Amino acid sequence: MIRIGNFPDTVNEYAARSVAALVVILSLSTIFTQSLWLAAALAYGFAARVLYGPKFSVFAKLAIHGIVPIFGLGNKTVAGPPKRFAQLVGLVFSGTAFALLYFGQIFFFQIVLGILVFFATLESVLGFCAGCFVFGFLIKWGLIPEEVCEKCNQLDFATKK
């Protein structure tokens, strides 16, 4: 039986950055082609990663079993819950972009996916996860209980003091 919500407690930072690079490529392809199929694939990938982690995500499988070992990127373990939150934000953006494209709102579709490209590029190139940054604030403000991310407490979030 498939268990929804089976996201790992920790993830490999280099795999996450590789997935972000693949998201940039697919997002740019979707912007330029205005393909509903590509937009749907993008949203599916985020949904799969939010619900199941890498289990049903083609990009995650490619990153974990292909990109990371081929390029010898190694393993840098980071907390999973902030990454899951970032994937949820990506799902909101990609789902919104899909709906905008479906209803013919091309300009707004391009803006929404452009924002997604910007933040996915920050993640893939610089290793800055904006969703993770926001997640740290949500914990600090008490909107997310600290128990959700016990491993996060061991990491140095810029928002934690």
Automatic annotation (TrEMBL):
This is DUF4395 domain-containing protein. Keywords: Membrane, Transmembrane, Transmembrane helix. It comes from the Bacteria. It comes from Leptospira semungkisensis. Residues 11-139 form the DUF4395 domain. The chain crosses the membrane at residues 20-44, 56-73, 85-104, 111-138.
